[in-house]
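Lay summary. Proteins are chains of building blocks that fold into shapes, and those shapes determine what they do. In this project we predict the shape from the chain. Here is one chain we studied, written as its sequence of building blocks.
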Amino acid sequence: MKPADDLCDVCRGNTISIAQAKGVTDIERAQKLNQFLDHLHRARNQREYYQSWCRNTDPTAVVLSFDFAQTVHYPVSPQQPGTAYFKATKKCGVFGITDEKQKVQYNYMIDEKDDVGKGPNCVVSILHYHLQTYYKDIETLVLFCDNCVGQNKNNTVLSYLQWCLARGLNKTILFNFLLTGHTKFAPDRYFGIFKSKYAVSNIDTYADLLQCVEASSPGGYNKAVSAEKVVWYEWDSYFKPLYKSLVGITQFHHFIISTDCVKTKKFADSEEVQSFKLLLKPIDPEMPKVIQPAGLSLERQWYIYHNLRSLVSDISKVDIVAPLPKDLPSKKRKAKTSEDVLKPDEEPGPSSSGSTRKKISRKTTTKKNT
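And here is the predicted shape, written in a compact code that computers can read:
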């Protein structure tokens, strides 16, 4: 197969429909072919728009791309026994933010104990920390991401970008999305570099995982950032009384955000531009409420202690990976049976089983005989 940027459902459906169009007329076959070509042309235009911003040399503009990678696990080893496959090892989420001009990606490693879910609160909290730490006083901020509604393409992220402009953190923000099915971009390339190193490495602890990210690129293009530095905020409830929701947000791929309104375009070559005013009232100078990660449950701690200690290759790191929990495990209560509930001289109710009735009747007859 020739190289492809992604597996697109529309492209696959069009290819199958054209291949199976044997008994149709030439006009219907031409319509299907034109529909396929229009889709490819639109995907190519979206890709060229993204690449043009990556080549942009304006020093006042910062171009960032961000995405989630597949969750990784530890402890892990290339020489693990087969039984380790069935054990639930520790999980670590990976959220990458790529600087398209400097060709550097910052990988935020979200350990299982610090996880707050892959929702908009997680995305906005990491993005806020990243902008405040590495990019302050940016005139033009250009963002690219995929079309995932639960993480990126939602009103919480859109409200946060308006909030940044209202607080004077930026002057102009361009929020862009690639076409669905054709969303392979720079973060996926850096994730692939990390995964190739991850597949051949002995990783016992969370610190080993951070070192694996750094060692995956000898040139320093892959950087690891611990998510313990990030403060998780409850952004969705904070923005709800401040901004209106944009109806039909999923049909747009480009958002030009300013302090007073949001302009939208369906595609990069679309001439129609719609403007929306979403601000309801002046913004609150206070920050949102802080979300405290729930951490590992007591049952999970005991599972890690009993099952993962044997998977650690370095004996000195066993207590770091799977320490002894401070509290005792909770005792499971045994379910009471019908025999425990009913007394010997008590008549069973209509819901009792037949076997219980027989046992009780035998006891009563034995008493009478004695």
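What the prediction tells us: Residues 129 and 230 are 6 Å apart (CA to CA).
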